[in-house]
């Protein structure tokens, strides 16, 4: 996967291209941005350049190192064929680790996959590259175990921490990594990617700039569920009295993650309606924009561990006031 294959994210690509051209790749990067916007693909592209036998300074995509860094095993855990490319991810090694990772990436994974390896020279002479997917899921003990290595890594050792929730990382982890920020993809890029995968490009405006969301919405059942939730919320908000809105809230028995996804879709629906009416009905657009902010605030409450039921009821009450 070359840099050109990563659509959008020009500032991030430029930063990393310049680092490769100058031979000044930082030892530890933090890729921050929404899920499904290219963080993983760009991390792999840089990793291949660092591992390539004949870099230009980008990966040649032809040598054995490039090919093996692009080839993943079909059996679990799905790992790259190149021995100097390490992947850390919650649950990836569940078939071999003794520790449970119900609460996050375990210290056992960090010790066995990273620390036991980075103390030695690269097997094939170029570099050792470690990509941590969902870095915000590092448990405190696992994050602390990484700190010394991030601060004083062995020569030719590089880390890429990928996260959609950088605020959840320990301050000490953030201080030892160089941020590279990724934004949502444009609707045009999402539509293009959907088409190349044989999926409905009309889903692009609802995908919140994320191919991960676009793939989820390509499931008709999931899309119908989210559309139904958004419709019921807005009907409840516009009901004659508060009782109707609260009755809807009380019927919802949703887990935190599920409600976060549903509210994300609702917020996107409101954002799209703002775009549709802003020119012809600016007052209505302002009202919808305020409702959008209420929904986003409810998502923030959920992130701060407010009960899903209470967060939803409070949101419905506030929406009726807008």
SSE blueprint and pairings:
Blueprint lengths: L9 H13 L5 E5 L6 H13 L12 H6 L15 E5 L17 H12 L9 E6 L6 H12 L5 E7 L7 H5 L2 E4 L5 H10 L14 H7 L2 H18 L4 H10 L4 H22 L4 H22 L4 H14 L1
Parallel strand pairs: 1-4, 1-5, 2-3, 3-4
Summed up, the domain count is 2
Please work out how many helical segments DSSP would assign: 13
- The assigned structural class equals alpha/beta
> Roughly how many Å is the radius of gyration?
22 Å
Strand content: 5-15%
Q: Give me the side-by-side strand order of the main sheet.
A: 2-3-4-1-5
- The topology string of helices and strands comes to HEHHEHEHEHEHHHHHHH
**Which runs of at least 5 residues are low in confidence (pLDDT < 50)?**
none
Tell me about the largest β-sheet. Answer: 5 strands, parallel
Shape: globular
Based on the structure given, which CATH architecture of the largest domain is correct?
Answer: 3-Layer(aba) Sandwich
* Straight-line distance between termini: 47 Å
Count of beta strands: 5
Determine the CATH topology of the largest domain: Rossmann fold
The helical percent reads 40-55%
CATH superfamily of the largest domain: P-loop containing nucleotide triphosphate hydrolases
CATH class of the largest domain: Alpha Beta
Please, what is the average pLDDT? 93
């Amino acid at each position: 996967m070359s840099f050109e294959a990563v659509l959008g994210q020009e500032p991030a690509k430029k930063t990393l291209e310049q680092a490769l051209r100058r031979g000044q790749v930082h030892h530890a990067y933090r890729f921050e941005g929404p899920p499904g916007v290219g963080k993983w693909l760009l991390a792999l592209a840089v990793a291949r350049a660092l591992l390539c036998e004949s870099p230009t300074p980008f990966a040649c995509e032809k040598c054995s190192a490039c090919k093996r860094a692009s080839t993943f095993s079909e059996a679990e855990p799905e790992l790259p064929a190149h021995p100097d490319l390490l992947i850390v991810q919650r649950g990836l090694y569940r078939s071999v680790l003794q520790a449970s990772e119900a609460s996050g990436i375990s210290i056992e994974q960090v010790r066995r996959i990273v620390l036991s390896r980075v103390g030695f020279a690269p097997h094939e002479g170029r570099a050792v590259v470690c990509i941590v997917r969902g870095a915000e899921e590092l448990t405190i003990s696992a994050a602390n175990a990484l700190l010394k290595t991030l601060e004083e890594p062995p020569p030719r050792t590089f880390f890429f921490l990928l996260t959609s929730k950088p605020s959840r990382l320990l301050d000490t982890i953030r201080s030892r990594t160089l941020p590279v920020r990724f934004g949502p993809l444009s609707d045009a890029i999402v539509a293009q990617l959907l088409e190349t995968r044989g999926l409905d490009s009309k889903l692009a405006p609802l995908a919140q700039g994320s191919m991960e969301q676009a793939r989820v919405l390509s499931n008709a059942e999931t899309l119908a569920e989210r559309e139904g939730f958004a419709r019921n919320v807005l009907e409840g908000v516009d009901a004659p009295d508060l009782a109707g809105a609260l009755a809807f809230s009380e019927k919802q028995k949703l887990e935190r993650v599920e409600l976060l996804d549903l509210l994300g879709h609702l917020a996107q629906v409101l954002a799209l309606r703002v775009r549709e009416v802003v020119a012809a009905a600016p007052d209505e657009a302002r009202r919808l924009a305020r409702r959008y902010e209420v929904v986003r605030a409810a998502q923030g409450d959920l992130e701060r561990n407010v009960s899903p039921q209470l967060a939803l009821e409070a949101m419905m009450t506030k929406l009726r006031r807008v």
